[in-house]
Design brief:
With 216 residues, this protein is α+β, with helices and mostly antiparallel strands. It has a single domain, classed as Class II aldolase/adducin N-terminal domain (L-fuculose-1-phosphate Aldolase). The protein contains seven helices and nine strands. The protein has helices at residues 4-19, 76-85, 98-104, 115-121, 137-146, 166-188, 198-207; strands at 29-33, 39-41, 57-59, 65-67, 91-95, 109-110, 125-128, 151-154, 158-163. Strands 4-3-2-1-5-9-8-7-6 form a nine-stranded mixed β-sheet, sandwiched between helices. Helix 1 packs parallel to helix 6 (166-188). The longest helix is centred in the last third of the chain and has 23 residues, at 166-188. The radius of gyration is 17 Å and the shape is globular. Bound molecules: zinc ion (ZN).
């Protein structure tokens, strides 16, 4: 079986996504684009807790199943659209995380008004208009609304988080949930929301160059 380790990394990521309460049941999905342009995706509607590496489906960029006996996630067309149009993206996770989804009903973006959003998400995260689920449209909107960000909030639906690895995409989704939770708490007070200036945002983004340990 090809990519056994990578297949397991998708399952581990899906379990973490669930532990972080970004999905319930078998909701959401995880995908990873391999250097040979084959794509690993989680299967449709299977419990993550009992999922085995052989349940992960290998497809090509056109959606043809190359390896695996399971039906791929119903969002496959959207995911492949993202991979075909965003070379910087090597992994996606799709969630129904509650705070980001709630925010999509009352705002057009999560603004870059606090450090988490600037440092972890590369700036404001936009809300894309509603499209039917399990449709390529979700991918089209993700490409259109992502910009430099590592996530897009899908109105009335959930989130597409992007990364160069499944852990990177997961971390974007977790940071986004923290940011949305914080911003909604601020909005709920009914008081005016304070904003950072573009200069302050740029300055904070620059600081990011220092953060962490060298050679990691
Ligand atoms: Zn969904």
């Amino acid at each position: 079986m090809r990519y056994e380790q990578e297949r397991q990394s998708l399952i581990d990521c899906a379990l973490q996504m669930k532990a972080e309460q970004l999905v319930k049941g078998s909701g959401g999905n995880v995908s990873l684009r391999m250097p040979d342009d084959l794509v690993l995706v989680t299967p449709s509607a299977m419990a993550y807790e009992t999922m085995r590496p052989e349940d992960v489906v290998v497809v090509d960029l056109q959606g043809r199943v190359v390896e695996g006996g399971r039906r791929p996630t119903s969002d496959l067309a959207a995911i492949l659209y993202v991979f075909r149009h965003m070379p910087r993206v090597r992994a996606t996770i799709h969630t129904h995380q509650p705070y980001a989804t709630a925010l999509s009903l009352v705002a057009d973006e999560l603004p870059a008004d606090f450090v988490t959003v600037i440092d972890e998400l590369n700036g404001a995260v936009r809300v894309a208009p509603f499209t039917r689920s399990s449709d390529e449209g979700m991918g089209v909107q993700t490409v259109e609304y992502a910009g430099n960000s590592d996530a897009v909030i899908l109105k009335h639906h959930g989130v597409m988080a992007l990364g160069t690895s499944v852990q990177g995409a997961l971390s974007a989704a977790v940071s986004l949930e923290e940011g949305c939770r914080c911003y909604l708490a601020a909005l709920a007070t009914g008081l005016p929301v304070a904003h950072l200036t573009n200069e302050q945002i740029a300055d904070e983004a620059e600081e990011r160059g220092y953060y962490g340990q060298p050679n990691e």
